[in-house]
Queue: 4 jobs
Job 1
Amino acid sequence: MQESEKKHHRENKKETDPYELILKEKFLCILEGGLIITVFSYFFYRNILSVIFLSPILYFYYEEKERKIRSKKKQKMEMEFKDLLCYVRANLQAGYAMENCFLESKKDLIRIHGEDSAMVKELEKLEAGLKNGVTIENLIYHLGKRSGGEIREFSFIYTAASKMGGRWQEVISNTVEIITRKIELKEEIKLLIYEKELEHKIMCVIPFVIMLYMDLSSGGYFNSLYGNPFGVIVMTIALFVYIFAYKIGERITAIEDENV
């Protein structure tokens, strides 16, 4: 292995996850979790001390929210990668070398997704690696390893095809078409279940809207459920039922993403 590739390999070990949450996103997750605990504390217990009892919910909410944000980032990056592959294939058919296919495609990607898009940043890393003498195969392999999903699948196929020689460009062109279609299909499925996801969110809010309406229109209607052991037990059971129903709805509408 050349010295430049060894250096690149060491740098890849230090690279951050492309889907890692930034500080602002982490803060918003914690803030949202805190607001949810406050809402639960008011509607289910009407006691500020119940926030302590409900505090473990913050951990589980953060974990779930982080998974969703990472999933959205991965989906967005795969869509950008799909556009990149279309440009790469066009440049490949025009006779460009694979290195130049990616470098030329960067300009088109910036025009569509902007300079701050995740895939443009990955292409900047690729460009820097090429200038340092790292092979395109090594760079694409590490891109796939970091990103996972369809990007990883492409990187493995490209690495294998480039070692075969001969008609590898034809193999890459066919691979681009297949992976592009897979990404588009995932997006179509996501759009199909979007309405169900929206219904699920509305259904999760409705119980609190009803309770708030009853509180405002019939003051003291729920007073018998607060401030006594029987009420605490009933409301705790209601809380667990609500959380269980929420999780069932999440599982029904979820599209599992590997390696996120």
Job 2
Amino acid sequence: MRKCLIYLEFPEKYISQLKKIANHYEFISCTDKSELMKHLSDMEILIIFVAKFEAELLGLAPNLKWIQAITAGVDNLPLKEIKDRRIILTNTRGIHKIQMAEFTIAAMINFARNFHRMHRNQIKGVWDRSMSQAEIYGKVVGIIGLGSIGEEIARKASFFGMRVLGVRKNPQPMKYVDQVYGIEEMDAVFQESDYIINLLPLTAGTQKIIDKHYFSAMKKTACFINIGRGPTVNQADLVDA
């Protein structure tokens, strides 16, 4: 029987659904690398959450035809070898947009209302009535990367009365975004925004792209929220900023 290996914690109810869809496949779920090694030689499909599958392992899987990453980013995978082998590679772009957009809205409200400081005070039993309470209404949010998550953040932010700016590779008007800029125009977004949301994917062109140049352009009161790929930010410059 043809074999599909699921290299992550995967509830049985979902495996049952897969079996109904493709009953000519054997579905094996594991989280241990030693267990993974047992099935490399004859698996045809690999479903993986943490997108990390070394080129050496790929060489031990001669029958592998399809990798399904349960992530949007796939930059940790051996992309050249996958391309050379003509293995199908798919991701799950879009399935995280609700939770990540809610996280972003929550983070902005958290900073505006000082909930993080209030929570620490609550734990320590401190009552501080001088704590400032701001709003995100009327503020400017700059979304760097208008993919599915960025679009959902724009939609929710506009409902909260925020002005929405966005950056995308091919700038064109978008619903819920007041102004869309190209990547070469990011300065304007960093200068105007009260909240900067980084959603950039990791590519050769975005490696450490957000650096001291952009951090120095931000308002002193602005917040930087990174939910994109970590290496798109120059970490040393972020620490200095």
Job 3
Amino acid sequence: WPILAQAVEEVPAIVDWAVAHFDVRANVAIGGVSMGGDIAVAAAGIDRRIDRVAAVLATPDWLRPGSIEPQGTADEVQWGLYRRFDPLTNAGHYSHCPEMLFVCGGEDRQVPPEGAGAFADLLGDMYAKRHRRLAIAREGGIAHRFTPWMWAEAMAWFEAGLAADLGPSR
């Protein structure tokens, strides 16, 4: 959790830098694979400029119940980081409803896709009221392995968001 938390805390500074040095709009898209996806989801909870997330082989549940990888033990400082940043236990961080896609391996036991489902269930009403999307795509028969299909799903998610931001062409 310390590594995740430190990376999450760094994201707003990265967004600040990108806005200052590139032609970046106010609404930011972010994505990542595995731990990078976990970071992207948590960062969207602390930086309201993040409007769209694609999290591949990732989970909003830092406890990862059902994982074949044991979590180990945490001290009080580490539990504090968990309580501060874990997306599943901080639903209020997502009241701005950043659109999120979780791309999961249907047979992933390292980062079980059930965490994404629990998150979608938790936030479903809030997202529906704001007409925002929180989606899950699963590739059947795939464990914790990044595939071309997953890449295509994430890129299509970002392209759809860009097209929506630009509006209809004239």
Job 4
Amino acid sequence: MEHLEILRGKIISVLVFFCISTAVLFLFSERLASFLQAPLEGLGLSLYYFRPWEKFLTYLRLAFWGGAAASVPFAILQAALFVWPALRQNETRYLLFAGLVAPALFFAGAAFAYHLMAPVALRFFLGFSPGDNVLPLWGFGEYAEFLFSLLLASGLFFQAPLLLLLSMLLGLVSPRTVARLRPWIIMAIAFLAALLTPPDVVSQVLLGIPLYLLFELSLLIGRLLKG
């Protein structure tokens, strides 16, 4: 019961942090919207909303998902503090490593999608079949959903190499086995890139290539550390 009470307190603290983050982000909705429109710079496009409530609901969604993303590092910290007393010395080192690297990988993946994937994908969409006289009129809600799903998918997808490295360090799988399964892992990367990103080949390729490179880096580190 004592452990359950501790777990309950940590879950409540994460939920409180999430609610506060969401409320703060909603108060700064205009700045958040400007931040999301930065990948459109240089494209000569404006965003529109087509229903009276669309902008308000989009701001609510942005605040909600932004609060969820901001709560990830805090949730990882609370989970680490909960299991810390039950871990052995080598496990505490791995947990500390994962707690520091996981948020960094998440935000690195989101930054990669924001600065590289999104501009390339948007230019591809805008320049697709320009001679058919069909002009772009992009809605704010659909654009925000596209961009945020791209950031979230990229951030989550960047956690995969860390999970693979921890599996090798904890002895759950050997680097030799991982190397033997390389073709299947590449297929899994391609499948997850197609599943998690918006339905266009450009975003899938741009997400799959760095993930493959991170996989090779994780395998190399696992071989070095496990001998």
